[in-house]
Design brief:
2 domains, UDP-galactose 4-epimerase, domain 1, two-stranded parallel ribbon, Rossmann fold, single chain
Length: 326
C-alpha cells in the first residue's frame, strides 16, 4: 500500500510509521507534518535509509498540501491533531482548525475516489463514565464530549459519518484509550512522571487523583490501526482499549515503585476544569471482527516505557524543560 500519514512526527504517528514499514517492507509512506512543539524529526531518524519514505513539512489545513500529497495514496491515516486537553482549555482555536476543519477538507478531497481515510480518534469523544467498574464505552456508544479537545475530535468523527452516509466516502474510525510508550511529549502524564522523578522533583496530580483512564501501549494501538487499514470496511468504527481502568494516582504510584521512589514525590494540585471521571473501553468488537487484543499489559508496558525514557533523555531535554516548569 501507499500511505499518506499525517502527524507522523508526533508520538503515535512516528510509532505507527516504524510499525507499518517494518511489517510491510514493500510499502511506502508519505508523512505530512507541520512540526508543532509536539513533533520531533529525530523520532524517525534513519527511516528513509531503510524504507520508501518521504517527508513533507506542511499543514493539513492547507488543501493544496493534502491534494498534492494524496495523489498516489491508497489511504490517509490521520494522526495530525492538537492533542493536549489542558492546552485546549486555554485556547481551542488551533484545535478547531487542525482537528476538525482539516478533516472536513480531507473528506472533500477524497470524495468520489477510492482513497480510504482512517481517522485516529479517541475514547474521550464518549464523555465520562461513572466510577462503577461495570460501565464501559461500547461499540456505537453515544458521543458526549466534555472538553474542547474531545469536542473537536467528535466533530471530525461526526462529519466523517455524514460523508460516508451521504457521499459514500471510504472511511474508518478507531477510538483509542490513553496511549503510552516511546516518543510521547513530556507534558503527558507518564513521561512527565518519569522525568520529574528522575529530576527528584514533585509530581503534580490533578484534584484527588481518582480519575481513571484506560491505558493502551502504543505498539498495540499501531497494530490495531494496521488491521483496520487492511481488513476494516468503510463506515466501521472500532474501540481500542485494554478493558481496564486505573486511577491517575495509582498509575503514578506504580511508576514510582518501578523507579524505586517513594510516594512522597506526589503533590496534589488544583483539578483540571471539567475533568472527566473515568474512561474504559470494551474492545470485543475489534477482537471479534479483526482478532485484535492488547498484547502488552500495563506492567510490561511501563517497564518498556521507563527503559526508553531513562536511556534516551537527550531526545527530550529541551521539551522536558518546557513541559515541567516548576
Ligand atoms: N496520545 C493519546 O493518548 C491518544 C489517544 C487516542 C487518540 N489520540 C489521537 O491520536 C492522534 C495522535 O496523537 P499524539 O498523541 O501522537 O499527538 P502528538 O501531539 O504527539 O502529535 C501530533 C502531531 O500532529 C502534528 N500536527 C498538529 N497539527 C498539525 C497540522 N495542522 N498540520 C500538520 N501536522 C500537524 C504535530 O506536529 C505532531 O507531530 C491525535 O489525533 C489524537 O487525537 C491520541
Amino acid at each position: 500500500m501507499k500511505l499518506l500519514v499525517t502527524g507522523g512526527l508526533g508520538f503515535i504517528g512516528s510509532n505507527f510509521i516504524w510499525h507499518w514499514l517494518r511489517n510491510n517492507r514493500n510499502d511506502s509512506i508519505v508523512n505530512v507534518d507541520k512540526i508543532t512543539y509536539a513533533a520531533d524529526p529525530r523520532y524517525l531518524s534513519g527511516v528513509e535509509k531503510e524504507f520508501e519514505y518521504k517527508f513533507i513539512r506542511g499543514d493539513i489545513r492547507s488543501r493544496e498540501v493534502i491534494q498534492s500529497a494524496v495523489e498516489d495514496a491508497d489511504a490517509i491515516v490521520n494522526f495530525a491533531a492538537e492533542s493536549h486537553v489542558d492546552r485546549s482549555i486555554e485556547d481551542s482555536d488551533e484545535f478547531v482548525s487542525s482537528n476538525y476543519l482539516a478533516v472536513k477538507n480531507m473528506l472533500d478531497l477524497i470524495k468520489g475516489t477510492d482513497i480510504r481515510l482512517h481517522q485516529v480518534s479517541t475514547d474521550e469523544v464518549f464523555g465520562s463514565l461513572t466510577y462503577n467498574k461495570k460501565t464501559q464505552f461500547r461499540h456505537l456508544s453515544r458521543y458526549d464530549p466534555r472538553n474542547p479537545y474531545s469536542a473537536t475530535k467528535a466533530a471530525a468523527d461526526l462529519m466523517i459519518g455524514a460523508y460516508v452516509n451521504t457521499y459514500g466516502v471510504n472511511s474508518t474510525i478507531s477510538y483509542s484509550g490513553n496511549n503510552y510508550g516511546p516518543f510521547q511529549h513530556p507534558e503527558k502524564l507518564i513521561p512527565k512522571t518519569i522525568f520529574l522523578s528522575m529530576l527528584d522533583r514533585k509530581i503534580p496530580v490533578y484534584g484527588n487523583g481518582r480519575q481513571m483512564r484506560d491505558w493502551v501501549y502504543v505498539e498495540d494501538h499501531c497494530a490495531a490501526i494496521s488491521l483496520i487499514l487492511k481488513r476494516g470496511r468503510t463506515g466501521e468504527r472500532f474501540l481500542v482499549g485494554s478493558g481496564k481502568a486505573i486511577s491517575n494516582v495509582e498509575l503514578v504510584r506504580r511508576i514510582l515503585r518501578l523507579l524505586g521512589r517513594e510516594d512522597d514525590l506526589i503533590e496534589y494540585v488544583a483539578d483540571r476544569p471539567g475533568h472527566d471521571s473515568r474512561y474504559c473501553s470494551d474492545y470485543s468488537y475489534i477482537e471479534k471482527k479483526l482478532g485484535w487484543k492488547p498484547e502488552i499489559d500495563l506492567e510490561k508496558g511501563l517497564r518498556k516505557t521507563i527503559e526508553h525514557y531513562s536511556t534516551n533523555p537527550d531526545l527530550y531535554r529541551d521539551k522536558i524543560a518546557r513541559a515541567t516548569k516548576p
